[in-house]
Structure formats: C-alpha cells, structure tokens
Design goal:
CATH superfamily of the largest domain: Rhodanese-like domain
CATH architecture of the largest domain: 3-Layer(aba) Sandwich
Number of strands: 18
Order of helices and strands: EEEEEHEHEEEHEHEEEEEEEEH
Oligomer: single chain
Structural class: alpha/beta
CATH class of the largest domain: Alpha Beta
Shape: globular
C-alpha cells in the first residue's frame, strides 16, 4: 500500500497530566502490589468488547478492571507508545514495548505465552491494539488493551511514574480512500520519540487525538497515512523507517509494509 506523509504543527493549548507520580519498578507489574485491595467488577474476560486489528481479535478492557488486575499483581503492563512518552510518564511498573512489534530486547519476550499482558497507549487504544495484535499473532494467549487509554488511568489518580508534564492537546483530521478502511494512520514527533495512531474509518475519515509533551506550538508533527487527500500540512516524500534488530517472530513479518516501526 502506498503511503504519504505530511507535516502539521503541535497545538498551543495544553492539558495537565493528572495522577500520582512516583518511582518505578520497571518489571511490568507493581513490585508488591500498590496497597489497594482489589474489588470485584463481576467482569469475565469473555464479556469484553473485541476489535479486529491486523486480522486478530483484540479484547478492550475497561480501565477499572485493569486497575484491579494491577492491584492484584496479576498482569504485566506494557506501554506501546514512543520511548519519549514512556520516559515522561507511564503506568508505574510498566515496561516499554512499542507498537507494533516491540523492540530488539523486548521485555515481553521473557514471559510465558499464558501470562496476562495489558497493553496501553494514549490515543486511547490504537497503538496498544497494534501491539496486542502482534503479541496474539505470536502466540500469547491472554493479551488485553486498556479501552480508555493511559490518560484516563492517570486522570483517575491511579499509579503513574515519571515526571509530571504538560501534554499538548490537538486533533488532526484527514481523509483517505474508503478502500483503506481499517488501516493505521500514525502521527509522531520524531525528535522526542512521541507517537500516536488511529484507524481509517469506513468512510475514509480518520481523527488523531494527540497529547504530546513539552512541544512548542510550531513543533512539526509528521502524519503518515494512505492519503489521496490532505486536510492539513505540507506533503513530503515518503519516509523509510530505520531498521532495528528484530526477534524471530518479527522477522516472519518483514514483508508487511503496512506496519510502522519506530526509527
């Protein structure tokens, strides 16, 4: 599929990131729980809404349910955003495993395939769904996504680690050929390694909700999409993502040009 990229600018408006910011165990789960007694939501894993992504059915889990899993220490949490966003603020104890296929020394590769993994991002579940779909394809049997995303988690005061930041708030809208419905669209600020994603709707429209941190109003945001029509920005030549060391599973997917890999 042919893709084009264009540049737009970061927003002048900001939105404060809420949440209790503290230390981080970096293991994917809280080291000793978080001192909160989990309460039952009477939700079974089979009752969750599922979204088809890259040919896999990805379960979307309400944030309060994932909070219970977190408090019980019964899941590994994985941040699917860019490394810059992860370093600024992330769920306390979460590991960094970027969409779609992780990184060369990805910490999730050490997990057994039957262990519970919860992926999240901030858009609110597009990048995380791509990461989850990749894990499911690789044989992981209990992979979930936080439906409302990271910022809902933080806004509820759930445990967050990192430095408190001001997040830029902007919506970028565009339109592609409806034939590309379901394909991903990516927005990124390359110097700080921050990214979000969305999917092309049935009518060809897409809408990216960006909350990037510490950017000036004129900071360039690159949008990569199957675009016959642009609604904002300047067209630039297609950019080839840099190579990174892949796991054996990722090598099996090397001929899938629709998947984005961070440079």
């Amino acid at each position: 599929m042919q893709r084009r990229s264009f540049l737009t600018a970061a927003a002048p408006s900001t939105s404060a990131l809420a949440g209790c910011l503290g230390g981080d165990s970096g293991s994917g789960t809280p080291s000793d729980g978080d001192g909160t007694t989990p309460t039952s939501t009477d939700a079974s894993t089979g009752s969750f809404e599922r979204k088809e992504v890259e040919g896999e059915m990805v379960p979307l889990v309400p944030v309060d349910v994932t909070r219970e899993w977190y408090a019980a220490g019964s899941a590994t949490f994985a941040d699917a955003r860019g490394e810059g966003q992860y370093e600024q603020a992330h769920i306390e104890g979460a590991v960094w495993s970027p969409a779609p296929d992780g990184r060369g020394d990805d910490p999730l590769e050490a997990l057994a395939t039957d262990e519970r993994i919860v992926c999240y991002c901030g858009c609110p579940h597009h990048l995380s769904s791509l990461r989850a779909a990749s894990l499911i394809e690789d044989g992981y049997e209990s992979v979930y996504v936080i439906d409302e995303g990271f910022f809902e988690w933080a806004d509820r005061g759930y445990p967050v680690a990192g430095t408190e930041v001001e997040g830029s708030a902007r919506v970028v809208r565009g339109r592609a050929d409806p034939a590309h419905a379901g394909e991903p669209v990516y927005a990124s600020h390359e110097p700080t390694d921050q990214r979000e994603a969305a999917f092309v709707a049935a009518d060809g429209a897409y809408e990216l909700h960006l909350r990037f941190a510490d950017l000036s109003p004129d900071a360039p945001i690159r949008v990569v999409a199957p675009l016959p029509e642009l609604t904002d920005g300047v067209v630039t030549p297609p950019q080839r993502a840099g190579r990174r060391r892949r796991s054996g599973a990722a090598n099996r997917r090397r001929n899938r040009p629709r998947r984005y890999r961070p440079a």
